[in-house]
Amino acid sequence: MDKSLDIKAFLDADEKKDLLRLLTAGSVDDGKSTLIGRLLFDSKKLYEDQLTALERDSKRVGNAGAGQIDYALLLDGLKAEREEGITIDVAYRYFSTNARKFIIADTPGHEQYTRNMITGGSTANLAIILVDARTGVITQTRRHTYLVSLLGIKHIVLAVNKMDLVGFDEQVFNRIKDEYLDLTTRLGIDDVTCFPLSALDGDNVVERSTRTPWYQGKALLDFLETVPIHQDRNMNDFRYPVQYVLRPNLDFRGFSGKIASGVVHEGDEIVALPSMKRSHVKQIVTYEGNLKEAFCPQCVTLTLEDEIDISRGEMLVHPDNLPHIGRCIETMLVWMDEEPMDRGKQFFLKHNTNTTRATIDKVCYRVDVNTMEHLQGTDFKLNEIGLVQITTAKTLFFDDYATNRATGSFILIDPITNNTCAVGMIRRPIAEEGREQEQLPVINLTRLGIRPEEEAVVEKVVKDLARQGLEIRIVK
Prior knowledge:
With about 475 residues, the chain is an alpha+beta fold. The chain contains ten helices and 24 strands. The strands form five sheets. Strands 7-15-11-12-14-9-8 form a seven-stranded antiparallel sheet, with no helix packed on it. The longest helix is centred in the middle third of the chain and has 17 residues, at about 170-185. The chain is globular, with a radius of gyration of 26 Å.
C-alpha cells in the first residue's frame, strides 16, 4: 500500500478534528503547570529533544524529588518562574490526541497576575480550576471562578489536586466538591465536573487510578476528549463586523472579515449598520473558492447585489435579527491597568472592528469576590471588578455578553500610554433619554439651503467625520 496515501489520510483526518481551548487557573503552587506537563507526558505528546531537556532541567532546577521529573518545567519557561517555582506569564501549549486538538493556557495563580488570566480565558471553551486538597476552596478559587463566570466559559472542571497528600480520602474530596458546587450554583454555572487528582503521580489524569476505588468517573483526559462544545457558539444571530473593503480591481468590491456569530447563505437579505441600507449576498468568496454558506468563526469576503457605502467598523446582519444599537451601555468591567481608573479621562473603546472614544459615566458597584457582595461604587484599582455605565462617541452594534460573547465584549485603551486598561462584558443597553439629540451637533439641510441633489455630498462628509469619532445629526 502506498505510504503517501496513508500520510494524506492521516493529515486529512487530523485536520477535521475539532479544537478545545481550555485554561487552567488556581492559587499559587496548586499544581497547574505540573498537571498540564503530566497530560503532555502521559499522552506521549513530547518530542525526544523536549523530553531530554526536561530530564536535564529537572535535575538542575526541578522541585520534584531525586530522580523524578518536574513536569511544571514544560510550561514555566521564564527564568524568574523557574527560580521562584511559580507561573508569571500565560503559557500556551498545543497537543492533540486521536479524538481532539487542544490549546491549553496555563494562567498565573498570584493575585497580581489575575489580569493575565483574563487574557488566557478570553477564547476558552473550558476552565480547569485547581485546588489543593489540603486547603480546599480559598479566596483565589472564588476569584477565578467568578472571572470564569464573567467570561462566559460554559464548562468547568474542578481538579482537586494533591490527593496523595491527604491519603486519597473520599470525605476530603466530597467536602471540597460540595463547597465548590455551592459557589457555582450561586454564580449560575451549571456544567461542573469534579476530579480527584495527583498531578505529580498521574492519578486520574490520563488513566483511572487504583488508589481512588470510590471514584467512578472518567479520567481527566477522557473527559476533555468527549466534552461537547459544538453548542457553545451562537449560530442563531448573524453578525459580520466589516474589517476591510477589498478592491483588487475595478470589477470587484467585497467586504472582508470574520463572522462573529451565526450563519449566512448566498442570496440572503442583509442590512448594513448604521446606514440601514439593504441588499442581498451575491457571493461568499474565500481563497479556496466560493461557498454557498458560511458560519462563525470563518473568515470570508462577502459581495453584495447593490452598491452600498460600507467601511471598516460597520456591521452586516439579517434584517429580522438586529443587535442593540446605541451609545450607552451597562457593563461588567475588569480593571487591568496598574494606574487606577480616572473617570475624567476619555478612553478608546475597541469593539470588534469598531474603535471609538468613550467615557465611564458611573460606577454602580464593585464586587467582593469572597462574598459576592456589591460594594459602594468607587474608581477601580488593578484587578477590581464591578458594574459601570459607559457612553461612546460613535454608535455601537452589540448584544449582551451572555447571548453573544463575540459582540458583547470590548476593551478600553488608554489613549496616552496605549495600555489595555480594562475588559468589558456588556450587560444591557441604557436608554439615552434624549441625550443623543441634546449632545450631537445638528445640520439642518433646509435652513442651510441644501438642495436635494447636494444632500448626498453632505451625508458623505458627515459619515467621514463619524469614522473619526465625531457624530453629527442631519435633519431636514
